[in-house]
Amino acid sequence: MKYVLVTGGVVSGLGKGVTASSIGLLLQACGLRVTSIKIDPYLNTDAGTMSPFEHGEVFVLDDGGEVDLDLGNYERFLDSTLTRDNNITTGKIYQSVIDKERKGDYLGKTVQVVPHITDAIQEWIERVANVPVDGKEGSPDVCVIELGGTIGDIESMPFIEALGQFSYRVGPGNFCLVHVSLVPVLSVVGEQKTKPTQHSVRGLRSLGLTPNILACRSTKALEDNVKAKLSQFCHVPEENIVTLYDVPNIWHVPLLLRDQKAHDAILKELNLLCNAMDPDLTEWTARTRVYDTLQDPVRIAMVGKYTGLSDSYLSVLKALLHASVACRRKLVIEWVAACDLEETAMVEAPNVHMAAWSLLKGSDGILVPGGFGDRGVQGKILAIKYARENKVPFLGICLGMQLSVVEFARSVLGLHDANSTEFDPETSSPCVIFMPEGSKTHMGGTMRLGSRRTYFQVADCISAKLYGNAKFVDERHRHRYEVNPDMTTEIEKAGLSFVGKDETGRRMEIVELPSHPYFMGVQFHPEFKSRPGKPSAVFLGLIAAASGCLEAVVRTSGQGDKVLANGVANGTPKAKVYQNRGVGRSWRGAPDVYSNGNGIHHD
């Protein structure tokens, strides 16, 4: 087994996750089988109980693991299926060691950070690295490990010590360290400064780890004299220093690494240079080129409560991006804070209220994502009502699907107090109820999590067609409330159709409004399985409906990014004229979308 460790220095948020994903993709393109591990030095057992404002979205895996959002990058770039064990946290390690101590496995020894915690870390890495994640039998060839945080953080020290021991144990020909660091350009002098990276590497070496490759984040490519200086003071060959400079979108990063021969440097350190082929990124390059040349915009209003931090909806944004590229449309996200749509906002902040409604009404499609808590719920319901009554393409995910049922019950059935028991436990019309097997005393890991099967009840519904006329579909879940099965008959009689259910027929998974061009709600989270070139079916349907080419997409469903490769969309109604409202660059969050200027600008 070969190991590639990716660490970060100077500041956080440099894009270690994207770099690690790109390295994995590059090695995969060389014909190697790759797996990934993310190390998070926090004490939480997993990311499940963290606020999106604190840590970004919680990414859910097939096995129900609630993990760091970087594992989403790994799955999307490598088209792999990871497990909860691919995310290591301090909490998991300490819990496993304490459990062993309680069982007496240490035979009366004093349990310490060294060697017991560090040994547990190494054993975990070695065990997980040998588990295939690409659907094939046999162990992978390379494991890419990302160490979260920044070198020097006190939380990371046990992992640094463990990885130092691990690199010595597996040997220099089996371990390659890639250090991602910052080379800032001071506006006053306009010179690329190497001192931060020098200090970062010195700190790394003092902790027992020596970088083999430097990946330098900067606004532009490193100058030759800067590379020479870094090589001299960091003891890294010049050919092993690559620049990760600002690019239009993160799909360019693997191409940046390839063009600078980063794969040759890594393969040489791992003694694989003679075994691997030249990287074949033909499809990736073509898709990136298409993305760069998109001009016709499609505007999607994202109505949520975490609109101040785009990381909160990272997978949703990626799924929208995959679908928009497949439909040959430039994605324009209109961030709409759900609270700003409510009547209270009209009194407290009338200008903000008017601006929010203007964005909503000017959009080609509306999406209400998942969430927890009652803040902004009434605004989401108002957005759903607007989409339903005005025939605007709509997609509701998890809570968005539940609220679409609540809105329908209120507006069409006349059940004015219809609600979810999450927000009104005493409602006389509980359209959404707490799951029978759920826990009200423990938060972590008690939801309905992971991959579950949904069976289509109506053969000719839009969702079944988008899924290639399949009889069932497996998607990932994360919820503790569900549509009340005792009210579904009454709701369906009024026109809302539950076209997808679980194997018992008691859990509602997909809802559609047949009289609407595209009005769909799903209990699951389809964004977690969307991939570049393999867009999620329901997201593809939303973008296609918003672009006026749904019929063409339905005819060619299941063909990934080949859906409109031959220009099927040509001749369809043009979207509204796009206006560039400001472009910025970021390697985290949603670096692939244009925004409406509400404090988030990513390119």
Strand and helix map with partners:
Elements: E1 2-8, H1 16-29, E2 34-40, H2 52-55, E3 59-60, E4 66-67, H3 70-78, E5 87-89, H4 90-103, H5 113-129, E6 142-147, H6 157-170, E7 175-182, H7 195-206, E8 213-218, H8 224-234, E9 241-245, H9 253-259, H10 262-269, H11 282-293, E10 297-304, H12 314-326, E11 330-337, H13 343-348, H14 350-361, E12 365-368, H15 377-389, E13 394-397, H16 399-411, E14 419-420, E15 430-434, E16 448-456, H17 462-466, E17 472-479, E18 481-483, H18 488-493, E19 497-501, E20 508-512, E21 519-522, H19 537-547, H20 550-555
Parallel strand pairs: 1-6, 1-7, 2-5, 2-6, 7-8, 8-9, 10-11, 10-12, 12-13, 13-21, 14-15
Antiparallel strand pairs: 3-4, 15-18, 16-17, 16-19, 19-20, 20-21
Helix pairs in contact: 1-3, 1-9, 4-5, 5-6, 12-19, 15-16
Largest sheet, order of strands side by side? Answer: 11-10-12-13-21-20-19-16-17
Radius of gyration over C-alpha positions, nearest whole angstrom: 25 Å
Helix share, percent? 25-40%
> Which percent range describes the beta-strand content?
15-25%
Average pLDDT for all residues: 89
